[in-house]
């Protein structure tokens, strides 16, 4: 081990480095006041679901490893199923994004939010109304572009296209 | 004059800051000297191997993220290599290079965490850890802009990658690679000659090379004992045979050597990434693979040099959409094998350092 070599030189070297750092600017972001800008592909909360694009094919529900998407359809009309129930149980969702990757109609996107604390675990299950009312901030994960605008689109989609995401 | 003392049995963990999770050691003490260690594990057992048997090959990729959660990219890589071997799926050159870049970035991030928490265990409370986190943060930012997450990436796919890197990735990576050697110099200045660290770690937890081989440990722990064994050289996967890099090995096999090997491996990873970026070809990153993959009945084993050692996936297919058997050869678990031999005879304060130098992740030990 060499106790004879211990003159404190190594500690002094380390201390010089610490002193050098004293003059540098801090790189901490004070979170609630300051916010970092998230990358476009960030996979976050509040799934963005476009009801007029969804055909109720349930490809997303089959792709989910946990089975946390529940879809019930009521009848078939005009080349699509009428979506009756569309629940996403975000308390078990692990945000892997496989549902987004699987969707053939660009109807579901990951969101860009991350502040998802609630007092009640049941509120973490997003139903159809929640998804329609949710702030539409689609993440560009897996679907790298927003869909081409169509006549029957919701206004929020046109806004998202205008914003770029 | 010596005192006769009663042997004392002490529980280390399962809730102890030095065990990096929920790991329990039943330590028998004679005074301050350890006479026996019995590891108890399983507190984080989630049954991933069984869960994977009822999910498709694609759906299992997010589960591999959650084994060694400090090195998710490496887990993804080992698993998809096994599936590709099982189903004979080709991978494009660009995807191969990007896989190497991601795996090496992950090695830097994982070793930064390993070294930081090791020093935390050695008593340098949080200052070195925060230095390490500064760099790990930069790697996580690179991963976040690529695949949208900071811990559970789910980036590799059977037949390539889930998608290409964004245009801002390569400039950011270049800047990181320019800065990183300077940061490693900083760590060495701060730590490698620090007398307190030397006194605490030199000659502590010696693992002789013969025992290391017999206990089939791998990764920085094996190389710290002076055995030059690295799967990137011994059995090259992806395109590792096209890069020029060295394998750092320790001399004494003590805790300090394991720490030193990790620091040097970070340097080598930077070298590999620089070469990979220079050679990076254009092209597709994902080959055409059916959404529900049904490999022919058979078996495959693929292994990689993960940051913690040899990570292997053994898959058996019965021709259905889900694997019939999904076995993980996890390095953290097998690296715990010589724990008793390493600890017996040292003081109880050294137990924390020896366990810290092994760099275990409980998500992988218990699976």
Largest sheet of chain A: 3 strands, antiparallel
The stretches of 5 or more residues of chain B where confidence is low (pLDDT under 50) are: none
Q: Count helical runs of chain A.
A: 5
Overall structural class of chain A, as computed from helix and strand content, comes to alpha+beta
Strand order of the largest sheet of chain B: 1-4-5
Instruction: Profile the largest sheet of chain B.
Output: 3 strands, antiparallel
Instruction: Based on Cα principal axes, name the global outline of chain B.
Output: globular
User: Which value, in Å, is the CA radius of gyration of chain A?
Assistant: 24 Å
Question: In which range does the helix fraction of chain A lie?
Answer: 10-25%
Order of helices and strands of chain A: HEHEEHEEHH
Pattern of helices and strands of chain B: EEEEEHHHHHEEHHHHHHEEEHHHH
Mean pLDDT of chain A: 80
Q: What is the residue-averaged pLDDT of chain B?
A: 87
Low-confidence stretches of chain A: none
Distance between the termini of chain B: 49 Å
User: Total strand count of chain A, please?
Assistant: 5
Residues in β-strands, percent of chain B: 5-15%
Strand runs of chain B, count: 10
Measured on Cα atoms, how large is the radius of gyration of chain B?
Answer: 21 Å
The proportion of residues in beta strands of chain A is 15-25%
């Amino acid at each position: 081990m060499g106790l004879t070599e211990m003159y404190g030189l190594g500690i002094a070297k380390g201390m010089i480095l610490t002193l050098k750092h004293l003059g540098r600017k801090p790189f901490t972001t004070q979170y609630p006041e300051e916010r970092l800008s998230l990358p476009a592909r960030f996979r976050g909360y509040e799934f963005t679901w476009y009801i007029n694009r969804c055909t109720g094919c349930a490809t997303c529900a089959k792709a989910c490893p946990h089975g946390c998407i529940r879809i019930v359809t009521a009848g078939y009309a005009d080349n699509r199923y009428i979506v009756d129930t569309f629940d996403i149980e975000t308390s078990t969702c692990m945000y892997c994004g496989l549902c987004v990757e699987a969707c053939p109609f660009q109807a579901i996107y990951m969101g860009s939010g991350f502040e998802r604390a609630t007092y009640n675990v049941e509120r973490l299950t997003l139903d159809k109304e929640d998804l329609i009312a949710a702030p539409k901030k689609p993440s560009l994960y897996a679907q790298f572009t927003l869909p081409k605008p169509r006549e029957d689109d919701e206004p929020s989609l046109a806004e998202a296209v205008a914003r770029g995401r | 004059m010596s005192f006769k003392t009663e042997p004392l049995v002490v529980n280390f963990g399962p809730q102890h800051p030095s065990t990096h999770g929920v790991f329990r050691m039943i330590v028998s003490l004679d005074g301050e000297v350890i006479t026996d260690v019995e590891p108890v594990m399983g507190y984080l057992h989630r049954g991933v191997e069984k869960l994977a048997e009822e999910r498709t090959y694609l759906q299992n990729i997010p589960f591999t993220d959650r084994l060694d959660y400090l090195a998710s990219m490496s887990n993804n890589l080992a698993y998809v290599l096994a599936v590709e071997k099982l189903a004979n799926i080709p991978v494009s050159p660009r995807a191969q290079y990007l896989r190497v870049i991601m795996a090496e970035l992950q090695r830097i991030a994982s070793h930064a965490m390993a070294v930081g928490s090791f020093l935390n265990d050695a008593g340098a409370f949080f200052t070195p850890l925060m230095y390490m986190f500064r760099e790990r943060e930069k790697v996580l930012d690179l991963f976040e802009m690529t695949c949208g997450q900071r811990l559970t990436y789910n980036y590799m796919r059977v037949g390539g990658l889930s998608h290409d890197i964004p245009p801002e990735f390569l400039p950011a990576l270049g800047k990181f690679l320019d800065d990183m050697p300077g940061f490693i110099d900083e760590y060495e200045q701060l730590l490698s000659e620090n007398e307190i660290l030397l006194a605490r770690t030199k000659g502590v937890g010696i693992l002789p090379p013969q025992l290391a081989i017999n206990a089939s440990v791998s990764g920085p722990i094996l190389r710290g004992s002076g055995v030059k064994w690295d799967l990137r050289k011994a059995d090259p996967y992806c395109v590792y045979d096209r890069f020029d890099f060295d394998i750092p090995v320790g001399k004494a096999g003590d805790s300090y050597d394991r720490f030193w090997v990790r620091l040097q491996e970070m340097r080598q990873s930077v070298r590999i990434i620089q070469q990979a970026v220079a050679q990076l070809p254009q092209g597709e990153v994902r080959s055409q693979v059916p959404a529900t993959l049904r490999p022919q009945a058979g078996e495959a084993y693929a292994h990689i040099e993960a940051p913690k050692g040899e990570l292997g996936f053994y898959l058996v297919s019965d021709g259905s959409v889900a694997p019939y058997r999904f076995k993980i050869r996890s390095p953290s678990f097998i690296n715990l094998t010589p724990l008793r031999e390493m600890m017996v005879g040292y003081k109880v304060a050294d137990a924390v350092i020896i366990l810290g130098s092994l760099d275990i992740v409980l998500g992988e030990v218990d699976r």
